[in-house]
Amino acid sequence: MGIQIKNIFYTYQKKATNATLALNDVSFEIKDNDFIAIVGETGSGKSTLAQTFNALIIPDQGEVVVGDYVVNYKNRKSRKLRGIRQRIGLVFQFPEYQLFEETVEKDVAFGVKNFGVKNEEALERAHEALNKVGLDESYYKRAPFDLSGGEKRKVAIAGILAINPDIIIFDEPTAGFDPQSSKDLMKLICEFHEQGKTIIVITHDMDLVNTYAQRVVLLEMGQLAFDGTPAELFSFIKGYDRLDIPTVIKVANALKEKGMDIDVNQIRGIDDLLAAIKKWRNKA
Amino acid sequence: MSTMTFGRYSFRDTFVHRLDARNKIFLTLLFMVGIFFQFNKWSTSLILSGIYIVVLLILMLISRVSLIALLKSLGGLWVLVIFLMAIYIFIPTNNPKLPVAFTIGTLEVHWDAICQSGYIIMRLVLMISLTMILTSTTKPMDMTYAFEWYMTPLKPIHFPVHEIAMTLSIALRFIPTLLDETERIMKAQASRGVDFNHGGIFKRFGAIIALIIPLFVSALERSEELANAMIVRGYDPKAKRTRYRLLKFSWRDLIAFLFIGLMFAGIIVLFVFDRTGEPIDIINFFFKVKGF
Amino acid sequence: MSKLEIKNLSFSYDGSNKVIDDISFSVPKGSFVSVLGHNGSGKSTLAKLIVGLLEKNSGTIYFNGEEVTKDNIQNFQNKVSLIFQNPDNQFIGSTVEDDIAFGLENRCFPHEKMQEEIERFAESVGMLDYLKKEPIALSGGQKQRVALAGALILRPEILILDEATSMLDPKGKSTVRKWLKRIHRENKELTIFSITHDIDEALLSDKVLILSKGKLIKEGKPQDVLRDEEALLAVKLDMPFVYKLEKELAGIGINSNADNVDQLVEDIWASK
Fold it and tell me: How many domains does chain A have?
């Protein structure tokens, strides 16, 4: 399932003197089974944008179309709109803070039950989701508050996964994680992608964008500033000091500037860089 | 981000903002007590009320508190207004002095009752406006300092004055943070299909639980971290501390004190005359004092 | 002489599982030491043990060569400051100035001199223009800079950072790091002890300690420790990219010992 974002505007605190235009005429399309990253500085509107996708925020103008659902100002009070959250799951930053049930399985089943699934089936789907995030049977009856930070986050992700949405949005999924835990979590997200889900990741981490995203959009002060591949983004933001460029790209850029014949757009990881350096040496 | 509401402190550099919080609280209370003196003669009450309103408007002008914002926030009071009206109208008036306004069945509603309820409502509105001027011109932190100062006499009997003031100030500091957190958790649970706006009591109760428990857990976690941060920076509730913020009584406070104080004294004098002698008429008051 | 020396420190919350297991190390005066470890490696517990928020089970702490005992612990604690991870939960005052003043008030610093002191330290972290601001109006990085000012105003000899930048966005991270570097440059006496899982931050320090499951498994200069892939793997950390690339390059006959991108690029180019 994809998302069409059509000319959306959104202002916080409309009536206050410090009203801020958080989204300013944003339009683009997310295709089915995309793996897309949304990047931008804090306050650029990326979280606001993501929240319009599942109708947590209703745009003042324009609309977001997801399958049969149309999120716009006219439909803002429609009770049917809540169903959109069954199709689009949103995993907030530090989702471990939303856990509240007495057992892990109950917490994961909570969301499923909210969409009218009977208890038995909900638990079954909860178990399935827990297994998918790598938590086995021994976790089902444990209290979520006794788990480690990483495990809690997995439970929270399972809680969204169990609802079985077609699209999953992750807001800074790896925040506060050490590199290994981050890698494990991203691997998991890639698995969801391979199983056919559309993945949207909101992040500051350009290494993550470089390694995993197929496509990336950049927001700047509520406007869409860039839409393309990660490699194209890094050449677009060269010279910006507001956004980090992955070290591998920095090295490739510096070598190119020195005069090396290297196609920076083809560099995604250390292996690509190494191959390019090898090729250059063989030529020389 | 939490929305601004009327009565919340907003920074402006005015005469009223600069007043000592202790003085401001005292004078507000004094003014309120004055407002609640009841006089036998209608004209006295009426003219005094007029004076109160004028003083209030001047205060608002000086402190640059917006009248429109005040009226807007008073809009929520209409339930109370109707309630008060109903009570006064349905309780029969003793010794009515004014004619009957209308009758409902056998119940005669006198103008007295209508005037009385109007008078009560007006005084209520005055009180609320005063409180709002106080809170929107005084930093919450200064309020807690003032509170601590007023409570100082209780220290010898081991009343935890400082602890309560510190707790209050921290609570005030964390209100916006916890409001943000509440919004975040609500949105996170809404993403899991919780509907905070619709459904029966049972469903709503479930929704509230899904909000309250995470909020509690995170508040507890915060409080532990905050306690650690305070200890590391050398905080000991029992130890002596110095103050960065000192409340100072300045010439401004003296002026305000004299002004409100004189007004209050005038009300007292009027009241004494009103109750002891003949019910007096404010219009003849000065004349009578002269002849006294 | 070492500023801080830890000998055979152990701690457990429940009496059986040791969160800190017989750790010994020393921190030279005026140095910048990084402690690396994965989530749950006992890093934060170590910080709390040093400042006395937790009570050690066994072991000794030496400060300026003197053992820290019950009698002199107050003096030691006055000389150590700790910055925590969450910017919101250590902001005590209602505004920036009140928060910076908090420690001074606790130390009974005279009221007349506070204003000057607060302004001086706010300036030292670039927050002078924000004195009247409330925490809700500040970014995470700004709040952490206020926390830094609030800690430094107490003139500590040791400053401990417990993942002080891990909750910040890249911009916040880099500004906090920038001010921290400046502070360290200007206060040669100040010893900084930073607990982190940010490998790039560790690369800039004088000494690196690696902590795994409560044990100290490696210590030394970052140039050596951070090249030890095995030790890093054991604590689930990645080698810094520059070192990773150097290792790969050695395989194709390019040798470099660079610690930063610029030097590495020079070395690659020179191998032509």
Answer: 3
In-domain check, residue A279: yes
Q: According to the model, what pLDDT value does residue C258 have? A: 86
All structural domains of chain C with their residue ranges: 240-272
Q: Has residue A235 been placed in a domain?
A: no
Mean pLDDT (chain B) is 84
Give yes or no for A99 touching B (CB within 8 A): yes
**Pairwise CB contact (< 8 Å): B184 & A86:** no
Q: Kindly report the backbone phi and psi dihedral angles of residue C24, in degrees, each rounded to the nearest multiple of 5, phi listed first.
A: -135, 135
Whether the per-residue pLDDT at A90 is higher than 80: the answer is yes
Residue in B39, B15, B38 with CA at minimum distance from that of residue B27: B15
Nearest residue of C to residue A180, measured between CA atoms: C236
- Is the pLDDT at A27 greater than 90? The verdict is yes
Task: Identify the bridge partners of residue B110 per DSSP, sorted by sequence position.
Answer: B100
Indicate yes or no: CB of A148 within 8 angstroms of CB of C40: yes
The pLDDT of residue A17: 65
Same domain, A88 and A100: no
Q: Answer whether residue A75 shows pLDDT above 50.
A: yes
**Which of A:102-121 have CB within 8 Å of B?**
110-111, 114-115
Domain of residue A154, residue span? 95-166
| A79 domain residue, yes or no | yes
| Beta carbons of B180 and C101 less than 8 Å apart | no
CA distance linking residue A23 with residue A21, whole number of Å: 6
- SS3 readout for C184-248: HHHCCCCEEEEEECCHHHHHCCCEEEEEECCEEEEEECHHHHCCCHHHHHHCCCCCCHHHHHHHH
pLDDT (0 to 100) of residue C122: 96
- DSSP bridge partners of C11: C20
Q: Which chains touch A (3 or more CB pairs under 8 A)?
A: B, C
A–C: how many Cβ contacts below 8 A? Answer: 77
Intervals of chain C under pLDDT 50 = none
State residue B3's pLDDT score.
Answer: 41
Interface ipTM: 0.91
Mean pLDDT of A94-112: 93
**CA-based nearest distance B258→chain A, Å:** 37
C135 to chain B, any CB pair closer than 8 A? The answer is: yes
Residues 168-187 of chain B whose Cβ lies under 8 A from any Cβ of chain C = 169-170, 172-173, 176-177, 180
Look at C207 and A259; give whichever has higher pLDDT.
C207
State the alpha helices, DSSP H only, in B40-160: 42-63, 67-74, 78-90, 111-137, 140-151
Partners of C195 in the beta sheet?
Answer: C35, C162
Q: Under an 8 A CB cutoff, do B141 and C94 touch? A: yes
| pLDDT exceeds cutoff 80 at B175 | yes
The reply to whether C107 touches chain B by the CB within 8 Å rule is yes
Q: How confident is the model at residue A68 (pLDDT cuts 50, 70, 90)?
A: confident
Whether B202 has its CB under 8 Å from any CB of chain C: the answer is no
The reply to whether A123 and A252 lie within a common domain is no
